[in-house]
């Protein structure tokens, strides 16, 4: 496979494993979240943002980019406090607010409180980024417990319903909801059955909700990552899959979180005023059919 940029880490990745949900510090190579590369230009000045899964991976890259574009953020995460503090550090270095909000988004009451906290502490909510996700790998359907299936759905798609429903009560015309789906929405990995099923649901939820709220001037879109180097990978995939992760793309490597952030910035900005119900694939060249 050809490589698009030899300065980016290339597979095979070093052998490594973590316990879910994973942490950034032990990863080798370290993910690039745009800490040194992302340059803002005021595209999100005045935006008030709630982002889930903002502690690491794609969420951290989006938080850094949004802050450098002028947005203030509430950063929701489960319990990865060290990672969340690191994300907050970069947001504050950009001169923006970073409010950390640990908790369980599978709980509808917590989701409602999270939106209310955003409104209270930032003075409103103009962008909701539904990014948090749970996945585990299983070789057989018999290995997926009822509890695991339920947890995956509650984390990945129920939370998006809870948060979107609560946020829409406070959103004005020009606001934006951005959901993270996946290439698994149309090309499901068999060993990620529960996760892939939720990602298909997210793509459908995005398109349907976009139609429901279009008359209010609120836009709903989603981003579909391909293989991206985040803590989810060494903590939820077998060792051999981690080593070869990203090889199956035309670009021949895994993407870095920083390479996702510009898509989210576009969808959060007024530049995407005629985009709603859209899915933006960032997949290293793998088609979404």
How does this structure look, described?
It comes from Teichococcus wenyumeiae. Belongs to the short-chain dehydrogenases/reductases (SDR) family. With 289 residues, the protein is α/β, with parallel strands linked by helices. It has a single domain (48-227, 256-282), classed as Rossmann fold, CATH 3.40.50.720. It is 35% helix and 12% strand. Strands 3-2-1-4-5-6-7 form a seven-stranded parallel sheet, with helices on both faces. Helix 2 (81-93) links the parallel strand 2 and strand 3 (98-102). Helix 1 (57-68) crosses helix 8 (261-268) and helix 4 (146-168) runs parallel beside helix 5. The longest helix is centred in the middle third of the chain and has 23 residues, at 146-168. It is globular. 49% of the residues are buried. The mean pLDDT is 95.
Q: Can you tell me the CATH topology?
A: Rossmann fold
Order of helices and strands: EHEHEHEHEHEHHHE
**CATH class, please?**
Alpha Beta
How many runs of DSSP E, i.e. beta strands?
Answer: 7
The appropriate CATH architecture is 3-Layer(aba) Sandwich
Give the total of domains: 1
Low-confidence stretches: none
Q: What's the helix count?
A: 8
What best-fitting shape do the alpha-carbon axes yield?
Answer: globular
User: Mean pLDDT, as a whole number?
Assistant: 95
How large is the share of residues in beta strands? 5-15%
Rounded to the nearest angstrom, the distance between the terminal CA atoms is 21 Å
Helical proportion, percent range: 25-40%
Biggest sheet, spatial arrangement of strands: 3-2-1-4-5-6-7
- Overall structural class, as computed from helix and strand content, comes to alpha/beta
Largest sheet: 7 strands, parallel
Mind telling me the CATH superfamily name? NAD(P)-binding Rossmann-like Domain
Q: How much is the radius of gyration in Å?
A: 18 Å
